[in-house]
Design a protein that fits this description.
about 325 residues, alpha/beta, 10 helices, about 40% helix, binds nicotinamide-adenine-dinucleotide
Length: about 325
């Protein structure tokens, strides 16, 4: 029988790349999405069921397309600043929505889930690189909502035997090699797409939030991980869950930080265009440096990121931004 996975949020940036990966590896993806931030045109690798995690009855139509060996759960509201302004909407979508999903999984006998968590569960870093044992003290409702779900998954493992893997992404970046899907958020808050829009000469100038941070060149340092390397980790998590009970969490990053100025230089090299930018004040709540230690994912899942080179990651995003399909 064909293997099937329910990809919740599969019309979004990372979920659509996951659906593509699954289809390429012989597993049928069924996408569940409310298209709130996702794109119908990004659902190309299996059927779309329009459903909303906040409408429990709507979820049954998606599960009817099973049986599913697992759920991959990418749905979220994920704008940090907006989460501070609208915490109830964030807890509702990200926590209540996940509870509804877990209950639908129980109704339909699915007992494995890979959950999109985030570096935001850690809050202010207290170490140069962040491993799984780093203190978890989120500083905004977005990060707190994700940490709450991790706790729910741990309790559900204990009570019901739910198997789960929470993957804490640092900064997802890049696009599919053939340019058919890519990152398209509105508003776009992520650095690399905004750098590339400025490079395209669409009239926008990049805002660099602070050049007086305690880093080598004064700009913030982040860890960028290619979206296909994230998909690979989810793929490995399926095998891991088949062999291991319990709730598990892994940090996913390249383990190397790049400053905003380094990203701009790499984007200029990848695109052949200048990136116009202005220095703006620091944003509240931005740590100076955020870099993952992903040794556990490498050792336990056998994860081996294939796109570590920043310029190559940006080049894949550039191909998409030159000719976005949605
Ligand atoms: N992009 C990153 O760098 C990053 C980093 C860390 C964690 N994450 C997490 O990874 C996941 C995917 O991120 P993304 O960048 O692809 O986001 P995205 O907004 O592109 O995708 C999320 C998808 O979920 C759907 N969705 C949201 N709420 C829903 C609901 N209630 N019911 C049904 N569908 C719903 C949206 O329509 C969208 O298609 C999110 O959970 C995000 O918090 C992303």
């Amino acid at each position: 029988m064909t293997r099937r996975v329910l990809v919740c949020g599969g019309a979004g940036y990372i979920g659509s790349h996951m659906a593509k990966w699954l289809a390429a590896h012989g597993v049928a993806p069924v996408v569940l999405d409310n298209l709130s931030t996702g794109h119908r045109e990004a659902v190309r690798f299996g059927p779309l069921v329009e459903a909303d995690l906040l409408d429990p009855a709507s979820l049954d139509a998606a599960f009817a397309q099973g049986p599913f060996e697992a759920v991959m759960h990418f749905c979220a509201r994920s704008l940090v600043g907006e989460s501070v302004q609208q915490p109830l909407a964030y807890y509702d979508n990200n926590v209540t929505g996940t509870l509804n999903l877990l209950q639908a999984m129980q109704r339909h006998g699915v007992d494995r889930i890979v959950f999109s968590s985030t570096a935001a569960v850690f809050g202010e870093p207290v170490a140069a690189t962040i491993d799984e044992d780093h203190p978890k003290a989120p500083i905004n409702p977005y990060g707190a909502s994700k940490l709450m779900v991790e706790r729910v998954l741990a309790d559900a493992a204990h009570a019901y035997g739910l198997r789960s893997v929470a993957l804490r992404y640092f900064n997802a970046a890049g696009a599919s090699a053939d340019g058919d899907i890519g990152e398209a958020h509105t508003p776009e808050t992520h650095l690399i797409p905004n750098v590339l829009r400025a490079a395209l000469g669409d009239g926008s100038r990049l805002k660099v939030f602070g050049d007086d941070w305690p880093t080598a060149d004064g700009t913030c340092v982040r860890d960028y991980i290619h979206v296909d390397d994230l998909a690979q980790a989810h793929w490995l998590a399926l095998d891991f869950m088949a062999a291991h009970a319990g709730a598990h969490a892994f940090n996913l990053g390249n383990g190397r930080g790049f400053s905003v100025r380094e990203v701009i230089a790499a984007a200029e090299a990848a695109s052949g265009h200048e990136v116009p930018f202005d220095i703006a004040p620091r944003r509240a709540g931005d740590p100076a440096v955020l870099v993952a230690a992903s040794d556990r994912a490498r050792q336990v899942l056998g994860w081996a990121p294939r796109h570590a080179d920043l310029q190559a990651i940006i080049a894949s995003a550039w191909r998409w931004h030159c000719q976005p399909r949605f």
